[in-house]
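Annotated sample (chain length 312).
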Amino acid sequence: MTLRPLAIIGNVNVDLILGPAEPWPTPGTEIMVDHDELRVGGSAGNAALTLMGLGVDFQIAANVGKDQFGYWLRHSFGSHAEHWPMEPTGTTLSVGITHPNGERTFFTTQGHIAHLSWPEVQAMLDTESLKGGTVILCGAFLTDLLTNDYDALFDWADTHDIKVALDTGWPIDGWTDENRSRTRQWLSRCKIALFNEVESTRLIHTTDTVEAAYKLKAIMPEGAIVVVKLGPGGALAVGPDNNLVTVEAPLVTVVDTIGAGDVFNAAFLAAQASGRSIEDSLRAGVRIASMAISTVPRRYDGEDLKVISEKA
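Output written by the structure step:
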């Protein structure tokens, strides 16, 4: 059995990670930190790196800025990035400051990702080869121009029998009434929802993740799947049969959690594309994400790759 086609649409940017910072500097001062790392980032970028690490074929529609960072990002993705447009602006940069407790504060420039448009995305994707497959939309609250054309994207997907999976990420201005309304409208046209625990409960106004999952599913089309990522608690899903499925996460020594949810998304969708059950797909997502956050440099291989590859 061959893998059903996969594609990623959304934000690829540069991450600069620094820290730990203690104490937080006062204005006009300078402190030294022990660690720095410049790397590929963004939800779409992290998901793409995961699929590359798993050896899974995919398409990706993204853009970069017209500067040295833009050239570096395109080089990092090789042939996948050959047709990425270079916008006449700087590349989006996120600076993550690590605190002593492991949490991070991010400062992000708007940069190029706000300029990604639906005509650009459509031109980058081979629609014919994506029929019967799945595309994941990443960074909905960051890709302003594309987000405003989501209806056209959904129409395209419906016309060509392509499932849409949605991971909005956290809204810059929080879960306002307007952001909740927009997200519910998007979900009404998506077949897969991929949210973390806090996003799902804030979106639905509840503290119960199971309740949030069922309420999200009620918004979506028939046959939809809702996944809630629970971090060290594993993950849960409500599938087309309305049954609740849960899996636990393995105990690992955490090195770096940035992009863990994006890694999960890619592994889950790869397992689904190979015909695995929802439970097996959740397990693949959790285990591969757990491996990624506990290894330096990050690894995505092991038994989970074997499970996906053997099914394919």
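Annotation: Residues 8 and 60 are 5 Å apart (CA to CA).
Annotation: The mean pLDDT is 93.
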